[in-house]
Amino acid sequence: MPEHIKKKLEDEIKQLEFELTSELPAEIKKARAMGDLSENAEYHMAKQRQEFVNARLGQLKKRMGELSLVNLANIPRDKAGFGSTVVVYDVTKDEEIEYRLVTSEESDVTKGLISTTSPIGRGIVGKRVGDTATIVTPNGKRQLEILKLTTIHDEATAEAGEAAAGAAQ
């Protein structure tokens, strides 16, 4: 799992755990001191927030577990997969677009970062240069032809080469 994603998830977990163990119990205690709980909006809001925080912590911990199982060695070297940068020709829009396949936590369509679980990401994963992906979107079908593919392995090799060239100077 990329370190920045791991750190982001760990930071959110830490913040929510602090809220759950420190801030919310104090709010609930303060609200209880106000008397009748049946009409106490502060108490009910704090309890609702406590339920939400518990649910979100469960989601984040599950996602951390899922991401820790990702084995980069299992990502294909000749097909689009997690970490790949893909240049496609969108037949529908008559334009070239560059996408990078990332986790859902990193996705940002405006920057060309597409989640592997999004409709476009799912359509591109497993494709090679020359393949065409048919993507079903709310606006209709799109045809994307894979023009160029750089896998996560290609990028790692290029970075290692650049580092070696820089060290030799």
Q: What's the quick description here?
A:
The protein is an alpha+beta fold and 169 residues long. The chain is 49% helix and 20% strand.
Would you write up a description of this structure?
The chain is of the alpha+beta class. The chain folds into 2 domains: 3-70, Helix Hairpins; 73-152, Roll (Chitinase A, domain 3), CATH 3.10.50.30. Helices cover 49% and strands 20% of the residues. It has 4 helices and 5 strands. The protein has a 5-stranded mixed beta sheet with strand order 3-2-1-5-4. A hairpin with a 4-residue loop joins strand 1 (85-90) and strand 2 (95-102). Helix 1 packs antiparallel against helix 2 (41-68). It is elongated and about 70 Å long.
Kindly list the characteristics that best describe this protein:
2 domains, 5-stranded mixed β-sheet, alpha+beta, 169 residues, 5 strands, Helix Hairpins, Chitinase A, domain 3
Question: Strand percentage, roughly?
Answer: 15-25%
Low-confidence stretches: none
| Rg, Cα atoms, Å | 23 Å
- Architecture of the largest domain, according to CATH? Roll
Between the first and last Cα atoms, what is the distance in angstroms? Answer: 32 Å
- How many helices? The count is 4
Mean pLDDT reading: 83
CATH-defined superfamily of the largest domain: Transcription elongation factor, GreA/GreB, C-terminal domain
Secondary-structure class: alpha+beta
Net shape = elongated
Please give the number of β-strands.
5
Order of helices and strands: HHEEEHEEH
For the largest beta sheet, what order do the strands appear in spatially? 3-2-1-5-4
Biggest beta-sheet profile: 5 strands, mixed
What is the fold-level CATH name, i.e. the topology of the largest domain?
Chitinase A, domain 3
Helix content: 40-55%
CATH class of the largest domain: Alpha Beta
The total tally of domains equals 2
